[in-house]
Amino acid sequence: METAIKILAVAIGGAFGAVLRYLINISPMQDWLKPFPFPTFFINICGSFLIGLALIFFSEKFGASETLRLALVVGFLGAFTTFSTFEFEIWMLIEESRFLTAFLYLFLSVSVGFIGVALGVWLAKKF
Known about the structure:
Elements: H1 2-25, H2 38-61, H3 66-80, H4 83-95, H5 99-126
Helix pairs in contact: 1-3, 2-3, 2-5, 4-5
């Protein structure tokens, strides 16, 4: 029964993360900075920040239950972040011979994403 509850928690968190990801992808952000894939970039940076924040809050600050951690980190953030889409978009940019855009997208996503994790950890430790 405990395993079923954990699976359900991941599924519910994943549903919310997937819906939020979809809403961001259909928002007016998709038209900003074209042809740069801004919605996916935004989602990845936010997801990086949130995972840093959540992992510290759950492990060091609040001692949240495993079920809650699974729902939010594995479910919600797992469905919300889009690194598989990110990889595919880089591939498509390279296929279109848009090498500079592909490099910028790769470099900025990884470096700014890492900064997001660091800021999330820093902020979580301040509380």
